[in-house]
Amino acid sequence: MSRPRLVDRKEEKSSLGSLPAELLIRMHDLMVKARVLEERLIQMYKSGHGYFWIGGPGEEAFNVPLGLLMKKGQGPAYDYLHAHYRQSATLLALGESPIGALRQMKNTATDPYSGGRNFAGHFSKREWNIAPVSSPIEVQYAIAPGTALAQKRFGGDGITIVTGGDAGTAEGDFASCLIWSSRPGNELPILIIVTNNQWGISTAAATQHGEKHISDRGRAFNIRSRTIDGNDPVTSYLELKEAMEYVRKERKPFLLEAMVSRLYGHSSASGANFVGDEPDCIKSFEERLEAEGVLTRAEMDALRKKYTEEIAEMARQVRDEPQPDGASIYDHIYWEKK
């Protein structure tokens, strides 16, 4: 979609956190793309083209900046991501195509992450240091210090990033992550992220946490920590940038809690219906972009229409792709050097 004003605004600073308009437009583009993808995945599930849905509509304002700020590549010189199942927006920001998520929802043999053997949101991309997403919640917190330890020994400025939800911090894996990351003299270059949507399936976080903020737990381990508004993409970008720069330079852990929304419930297990009283990060961001003259309403509507049509066409393509053959069930059980 043509945006002629972009050329004139390329170096202009917006009052939206004084980020360049070009970056604001890029973040908005990816946020809309991610939302349209998630809504298409929900439609696929509800129309019988998938067995289960879980994802991150409502977390785009945080997950897009995370992907944009990562140092993408393979090996310890680059960033490792130990993600959970609500991060399609991060994958898109890294440059992934939406069709991979559609293929995984449909469980096709062309699914690039699991060959049709896993369900929605379970990304894995070795060439980008994206570790396989696990279904048992938050085991990634106990695994992530391993890549951070390798990076500590390797040197350079690559860091490990691990993400999970607020309910999962009740698991011992989260405590293990804090302990292993903060041993005196052996601190690890790891950014520990909690995206707090204030729900654990159907259990309100306020009934489960004695601390004011989950990030407060970092103090017991001498880990620098902060709680931010993850529904604001400008705040998220600036705070993530600062936290990542700290971990890269100091080679020490940082605990970042981002308050986010959950717009379609926990998953298809809870109905995957729109929750109207949750703050919508895209709606609020678009209001600011329009007020500041960065984008017009017509441009934003055209962008959503464009992605709706493109992803719908991808979904139609995926419907005709083959399911995995039974003989492939034993593939990828053991590691094989490629």
Provide a descriptive summary of the structure in words:
This protein is an alpha/beta fold. The protein has 10 helices and 7 strands. α2 (21-46) crosses α4 (88-94) and α2 packs antiparallel against α9. The chain starts with a helix and ends in a 19-residue tail after the last helix. The model is unreliable at 1-14 (pLDDT under 50).
Any idea what the CATH architecture is? 3-Layer(aba) Sandwich
- What proportion of the residues form beta strands (DSSP E)? 5-15%
| Cα-atom radius of gyration | 20 Å
- List the strand order in the largest sheet: 1-2-3-7-6
Mean pLDDT: 91
Query: Strand pairing plus helix content: what structural class?
Result: alpha/beta
